[in-house]
Description:
Distance between the termini: 30 Å
Structural class: alpha/beta
Helix content: 40-55%
Oligomer: single chain
Largest sheet: 6 strands, parallel
Number of helices: 11
Radius of gyration: 18 Å
Strand order of the largest sheet: 4-3-1-2-9-10
Order of helices and strands: EHEHEHEHEHHEHHEHEHEHE
Bound molecules: D-glutamic acid
Number of strands: 10
Shape: globular
Amino acid sequence: MDMRPIGVFDSGLGGLTAVRSLRQILPEENLVYFGDTARVPYGGRSRDTILRYARQDVRFLRSFDLKAIVIACGTVSTTSLDTLQAENDLPIVGVVEPTCRRALLVTKNKRVGIIATLASIRSGAYEAVLRRLDRSVEVVGKPCPLFVPLVENGRTERGDVVIETVAREYLEPLKATGIDTLILGCTHYPLLTDVVADIMGPDVTLVSAGEESAFELKRLLKAGGLRADESRRGSAEFYVSDQPEDFERIASVFLREDLHHTARRIDIDQY
Ligand code: DGL
């Protein structure tokens, strides 16, 4: 039994959608979440900058005695996972491979679409993993750079003319390619599920990055004898790099549950 916490991070609060899955699938584990709210979004930045930020995020989390880390960010997972794994002597799980495995289980016509940040699409990481797992799959990727800022500003609801207009512009060409599965390759995007589903229609199944990572982590913890005592309820602590005002309300939207935790602000430049 190992009661040490699991570190989880994202460029902002999108990674809380992965925390939601972790709390459902590994309810006994203690979590320490860091959202780099002072520097979100990462998705339009270069790989070098994203890696530099991600290294700082990991260094902050490792100031706790962690047993594993979940990169709850598509952008960091697609650009920096291998480097972070090579530099750190603890299990690190990203969102790409588990999400791709799920998508391949779901697709029937072997045409899979991916929407994600510019950095993620540019990296080609989702496409590379899908093709490694199944050579016959056809992959269509589309960067959606306006989605993260809109989600962070609460423009997520059906009927919101701004998000619906932007989403139609991004998604209608994707729909026309005949995909039957769409990977929401950024952990902010599950908040747009209704809007995206309305445009893609009932014949396209949505697969969210982040949700599957919890299963992957569970397997890893079990294999390494690192599970916490399953009879308990784990705790969660939240840290951000900008003003934590309103954190409770905004985090509750991402977690889809009432959160009664505040977040503490840390100076990420010190790491
Ligand atoms: N949640 C991050 C991701 O999954 C958002 C990226 C960003 O900060 O642009 O990619």
